[in-house]
Specification:
Blueprint lengths: L9 H6 L1 H14 L4 H27 L2 H19 L7 H27 L8 H31 L4 H12 L1 H9 L7 H8 L4 H29 L4 H13 L2
Helix pairs in contact: 4-5, 4-6, 5-6, 5-10, 6-7, 6-10, 7-10, 8-10, 9-10
Length: 248
Amino acid sequence: MNKAVQEIPLLYLSLSFIPALLTLAILYRWAHDYRRKFYALVRMPAQVLVLGYVLAYVFLADNAWIVVTALTAMVLASSWIALHTLKTSRRIVYPRAGCAIAVGSGFTLLFTTQAVLRLDPWYQPQYLIPLAGMIFSTAMNSISLAAERFETEIENGANYKTARNVALRISLIPITNSMSAVGLVLIPGIMTGQMLSGVSPHIAARYQIMVMCMSFASAGLSSACFLALLRSQTYSFAKSNRHRGEFS
């Protein structure tokens, strides 16, 4: 199997932005909701380039404290980004989102790396950091959907239990769709990357099964923790939305 990965020239790489810009144009014409998407698209290449330098340093350092610091930064960032869909101030629920991702995703990451992969040493950054990225990003998206739906349900007069149940169900739709489509419609990124690097498709498939299981667990556990922690915050959501309605 050819182990060489095809290099993408910068000129050709720039062409990949054309479909994305077309999408932004449609958003501008239809919904006028393009500013955040445009900002994310512009910021993304810089973030990826910086990430390359950071990962190179982390991998070479091979230091447990540096790895823990990187994981902490990932949790804090993902918790903040997850709440951008809320009408209620993010600062009110940010500690709960951070706690939910740290507990739900942290448990999933620890179990996967220590019970399934049995990393030695436990902090091997070449495994831990990429897997943490997958786990935390899945939890981030799941909590984002859960938070938005929970807020909407409370705004519509639902009680906490009803809002919690609906929000949890909605938060798991993306990962459920991914698990249903994997191998039929979706050829997963980690499996593709490993095969491009020369890894046997059978070994790559085992890793992908592990990734899908940890993604589902991360999404479900983090969202459940987040929604459980919102129980005491239900009144604040209702009050905030009612107050906003009085002045709209």
